[in-house]
């Protein structure tokens, strides 16, 4: 049964805390990141090797300066320029090496990051398509778009720029720390003492910023959802003059995003400022204490100069780490949201050992089927129905009677909470998804068309169909005359959601898909309810063609659609209250009972 988590509020993807005080989702996001990097281990190791060489070139410079000051200058005074020239050449060579390795690293890391992001987008998109209808009915499309756009962009920022800065900074800090100890231990102790407040500040900032960035991810998702819903329902927005209300909602939700982002930036600014203050304070102490040691002959002036240069390079990476830390917190919060989608499991599970039905007759059985959307929403208390192969059964009844639920169970968008739905005596839960959908096809009132040509949309019913087969399907349902009026015939683009076609024409395209797919069972869920009279007449003729020789379950409110059925069932509260031929249910004296 569907998970009843409210996906418009706080749901499965929001943070929970385990007994140790660590967020479960933080570990989940790390696992996701590791799984994304694992296929590219070789490229990652190559990038690491390059950045190590780059770091060596970076930290070598001050050593040449120290050598030049302590040995090269004095030797040059005595007429020996070789030490000074060697120091200059060495400094220049390592500078060139650093430029080459930086370019190489950016190229390798750039390809690596794009490969990871490509895999992530594909993984989220593929997984979302596999999730059950119950998930998509609760988790709005706007939130999925937010996962694939703003959340992925946060990770992209981390991988494309912050990754380079982070690796360089960490390696620089470690290598410079070793060199500082080598140059002068007393001064190194002062530098390392500054790490104590840095560690405390970092831990504090990590907790604060992670919370703030989680808020930004939730807030921007709400903004995207509202924008998508407003643009998707733009006709209703304009007809009912909802622009002002929509602006007010967007202002409220965008304000929440602005405030959350401002709080996160305030935390980052505080952390960066404190890091710089500690660095400047340490540098001042080093200059004073180092000058004292030079004056007393405990160290050379060149060593102090190198020490100051290294110290600037030591706290420079720490400043970069503060910026990286900001990107990491944003990316980690985004990964938590993305991993929440990826860890969601379909409520309608595929069988581990599917049964294959090569050719279906179309015999349907609902055997003591029960279904509820929740403990308080029982739709089918216990429902049984046998439909012989080749029979057309119409379901009528008031809204909420359970008609559409039966259609969704037959199309296996949901599984019954009890009982079985079977095709030719085989439980639908044991059939493979693709195999089942070869034999059972559902047509809804929406008749969704994708951007592309008429032929492309018809070919959805059978992707391998030839042009001749597509044209034959169009002719069978009565589309040929309309297609001939289009500028490019059957290759004309239908535009977004089939906006170039009328409701009736879109429905005919949907029927052509069904005709091409040639299933044994057809489920029609209010397929003609939004059509005008001329459109309905065209669709009725097409219906007679595609239903011929097939089993069909028709949910309809129009009497003309019900009339083509062999049998009509009147439903109320999930049970059959009347069963008979169309003439019995919709004939004289029965119209009051029809929906």
What does it look like?
β1 and β2 form a beta hairpin. This protein is elongated. The strands form 2 sheets. The chain has a 6-stranded mixed β-sheet, with helices on both faces. A 4-stranded antiparallel β-sheet has the order 2-1-4-5, with helices on one face. α2 packs antiparallel against α3, α2 runs parallel beside α5 and α3 runs antiparallel to α5. The chain starts with 23 loop residues before the first helix and ends in a 9-residue tail after the last helix. The longest helix is centred in the middle third of the chain and has 53 residues. It is of the alpha/beta class. 36% of the residues are buried. It is built from 19 helices and 10 strands.
Ordered list of secondary-structure elements with their pairings:
Layout: H1 24-37, H2 41-77, H3 82-130, H4 133-138, H5 141-183, H6 185-193, H7 195-232, H8 234-239, H9 243-295, H10 301-342, E1 364-374, E2 377-387, E3 392-397, H11 403-410, E4 418-423, E5 426-427, H12 433-439, E6 440-444, H13 454-458, H14 467-476, H15 480-484, H16 503-517, E7 521-525, H17 533-547, E8 551-555, H18 559-562, E9 567-572, E10 575-580, H19 582-586
Parallel strand pairs: 3-8, 3-9, 6-7, 7-8
Antiparallel strand pairs: 1-2, 1-4, 4-5, 9-10
Helix pairs in contact: 1-10, 2-3, 2-5, 2-10, 3-5, 5-6, 5-7, 5-10, 7-9, 7-10, 9-10, 14-16, 16-17
Number of H/I helices? 19
Give the beta-strand count.
10
Radius of gyration: 35 Å
- N-to-C order of helices and strands: HHHHHHHHHHEEEHEEHEHHHHEHEHEEH
Question: Which structural category fits the helices and strands?
Answer: alpha/beta
The chain-level mean pLDDT equals 79
List the strand order in the largest sheet.
6-7-8-3-9-10
Strand content: 5-15%
Q: Which overall shape is indicated by the principal axes computed on the Cα atoms?
A: elongated
């Amino acid at each position: 049964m569907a998970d009843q988590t409210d996906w418009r509020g706080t749901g499965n993807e929001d943070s929970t805390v385990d007994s140790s005080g660590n967020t479960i989702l933080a570990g989940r996001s790390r696992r996701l990141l590791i799984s994304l990097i694992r296929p590219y281990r070789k490229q990652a190791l190559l990038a690491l090797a390059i950045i190590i060489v780059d770091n060596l070139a970076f930290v070598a410079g001050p050593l040449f300066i120290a050598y030049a000051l302590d040995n090269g200058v004095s030797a040059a005074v005595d007429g020996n320029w070789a030490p000074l020239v060697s120091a200059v050449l060495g400094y220049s060579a390592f500078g060139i090496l650093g430029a080459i390795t930086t370019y190489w690293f950016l190229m390798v890391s750039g390809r690596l990051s794009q490969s990871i992001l490509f895999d992530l987008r594909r993984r989220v998109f593929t997984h979302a398509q596999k999730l059950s209808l119950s998930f998509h009915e609760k988790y709005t499309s706007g939130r999925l778009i937010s996962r694939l756009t703003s959340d992925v962009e946060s990770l992209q920022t981390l991988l494309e720029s912050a990754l380079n800065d982070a690796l360089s900074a960490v390696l620089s800090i470690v290598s410079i720390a070793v060199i500082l100890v080598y140059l002068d231990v007393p001064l190194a102790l002062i530098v390392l003492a500054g790490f104590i407040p840095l560690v405390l500040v970092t831990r504090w900032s990590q907790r604060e910023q992670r919370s703030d960035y989680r808020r930004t991810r939730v807030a921007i998702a709400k903004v995207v959802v509202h924008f998508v819903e407003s643009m998707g329902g733009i006709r209703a927005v304009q007809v009912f003059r909802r622009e002002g209300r929509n602006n007010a909602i967007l202002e409220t939700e965008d304000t929440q995003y602005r405030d959350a982002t401002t709080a996160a930036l305030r935390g980052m600014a505080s952390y960066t400022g404190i890091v710089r203050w500690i660095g400047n304070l340490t540098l001042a102490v080093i200059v004073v204490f180092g000058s004292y040691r030079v004056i007393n002959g405990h160290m050379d002036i060149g060593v102090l100069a190198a020490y100051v240069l290294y110290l600037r390079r030591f706290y420079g990476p720490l400043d970069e780490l503060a910026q990286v830390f900001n990107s990491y917190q944003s990316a980690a919060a985004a990964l938590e949201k993305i991993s929440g989608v990826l860890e969601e499991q379909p409520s309608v599970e595929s069988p581990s050992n599917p049964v294959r039905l090569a050719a279906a007759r179309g015999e349907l059985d609902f055997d003591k089927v029960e279904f509820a959307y929740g403990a308080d929403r029982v739709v089918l208390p216990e429902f049984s129905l046998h439909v012989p192969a080749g029979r057309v059964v119409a379901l009528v009844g008031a809204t909420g009677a359970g008609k559409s639920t039966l259609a969704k169970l037959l199309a296996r968008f949901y599984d019954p909470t009890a009982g079985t739905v079977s095709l030719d005596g085989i439980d639908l839960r044991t059939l493979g998804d693709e195999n089942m959908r070869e034999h059972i096809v559902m047509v809804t009132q929406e008749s969704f068309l994708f951007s592309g040509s008429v032929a492309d949309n018809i070919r959805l019913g059978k992707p391998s169909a030839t042009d001749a087969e597509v044209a034959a399907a169009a002719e069978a349902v009565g589309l040929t005359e309309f297609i001939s009026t289009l500028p490019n015939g059957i290759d004309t683009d239908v535009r977004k959601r089939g906006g170039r076609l009328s409701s009736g024409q879109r429905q005919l395209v949907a029927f052509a898909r069904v005709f091409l797919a040639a299933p044994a069972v057809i489920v029609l869920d209010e397929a003609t309810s939004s059509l005008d009279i001329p459109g309905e007449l065209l669709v009725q003729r097409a219906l007679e063609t595609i239903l011929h020789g097939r089993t069909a379950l028709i949910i309809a409110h129009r009497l003309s659609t019900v009339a083509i059925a062999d049998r009509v069932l009147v439903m109320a509260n999930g049970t059959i209250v009347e069963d008979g031929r169309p003439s019995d249910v919709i004939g004289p004296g029965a119209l009051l009972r029809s929906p």
